[in-house]
Design goal:
With 336 residues, this protein is α/β, with parallel strands linked by helices. The protein is built from 13 helices and twelve strands. It has a six-stranded parallel sheet with strand order 2-1-3-4-5-11, with helices on both faces. A six-stranded mixed sheet has the order 7-6-8-9-10-12, with helices on both faces. Keywords: DNA-binding, Transcription, Transcription regulation.
């Protein structure tokens, strides 16, 4: 190492005579590190000057007393979406009595993922909850490789050995489609979620499963981004391309609200001409005109369960489930 160079984790591991993963776990105060290895890493940290103050504190306490909530979405999107507010409420409820502090991280720039990883693996937190993953996001894998306990919100698309909590998106969407068929609709469209998210894929697959065997076409599909604006834009495309539709399942309540606004503007009566079903059961659903039929998902329980799973791991509990699936329920209202 050059005289003025900042020491790396690899150099700390080499000086301590341990693997990089062991050095990372020792520095982050994580379990499954022998006392001898922890002492060797502490000496290497002191000799090399590897973030001395912060790391010395982590090695002394072995805990930071905080966990991170990583929202893989732009901050303005997170702060304006009632779904994330309820997830956060559930997480705070789950932390009650734990004396753990919560650090909230949100995307502001496209290139912030590396910054997230550096922060999370730098000894600042004891573990992380990661929500709203897109595509094969490398962040969970980076955290797992660094030895940081992590729980994911939603089934990951990337192959990563991390526990996750999800809701039964597939069967929830299937029940929405079956409901529309059962009330006599014969041209059923859907506004699906993003194609790079498991929640979007699972709800679209569930809708197709609910339509299977009915003999009704399933070509009326448009995608949105879980916002009112995205739902409105998708509804306009559906009306243009499939003017004969008589029902629409939107993969989120906000997209359903946007769709209803477009239908009202187009003079399509709800539910007489077009029935509408959403997904979430947000507070806005029963206030719509007409009140929105939707699939209820336990949003706050989702946040609490993620938090329980992470805290249990941090406490060294064994036999924990690698994945947890929460149920959904169709809530019938006047929009169908």
């Amino acid at each position: 190492m050059s005289q003025n160079a900042t020491p790396t984790l690899e150099e700390v591991a080499r000086a301590a005579g341990v693997s990089r993963a062991t050095a990372s776990r020792a520095i982050n105060g994580l379990p499954y590190v022998s006392e001898r290895a922890r002492e060797q890493v502490a000496r290497a940290v002191e000799v090399l000057g590897y973030r001395t103050n912060q790391v010395a504190r982590s090695l002394a306490t072995k805990r930071t007393g905080s966990i991170a909530l990583v929202m893989s979405e732009p901050g303005n999107f997170v702060l304006s979406d009632p779904f994330f507010a309820r997830v956060l409420r559930g997480i705070y409820s789950g932390l009650s009595g734990s004396q753990m502090q919560l650090v909230l991280l949100m995307n502001n720039e496209q290139d912030e993922e590396d910054g997230f990883a550096r922060y999370l693996c730098g000894g600042h937190v004891d573990g992380a909850l990661v929500v709203s993953l897109h595509g094969e996001d490398p962040l969970p894998g980076l955290l797992v490789d660094a030895g940081l306990p992590v729980v994911l919100g939603g089934r990951p698309l990337a192959r990563v050995d991390a526990p996750y909590v999800d809701v039964d998106n597939f069967n929830g969407a299937s029940s929405a489609a079956r409901h529309l068929i059962d009330i006599g609709r014969r041209r059923v469209a859907t506004i699906a979620g993003p194609e790079d998210m498991s929640v979007g894929m699972d709800r679209l697959s569930g809708w197709r499963r609910g339509m299977a065997g009915t003999g009704i076409a399933t070509d009326a599909v448009e995608h949105g981004d879980f916002t009112m604006e995205g739902g409105a834009a998708a509804m306009r495309r559906l009306l243009r391309n499939h003017p004969d539709l008589d029902a629409v399942f939107a993969a989120s309540d906000l997209m359903a609200v946007g769709a209803m606004q477009v239908l009202h503007a187009a003079g399509r009566r709800i539910p007489e001409e077009v029935a509408v079903v959403g997904f979430d059961n947000l507070d806005i659903a029963p206030t719509m005109s007409p009140p929105l039929t939707t699939v209820r998902q336990p949003i706050e329980e989702f946040g609490r369960t993620m938090t329980w799973r992470l805290l249990a791991q941090l406490e060294g509990e064994t036999g924990l489930p690698p994945s947890i699936m929460l149920p959904t329920e169709l809530v019938r209202r006047a929009s169908t």
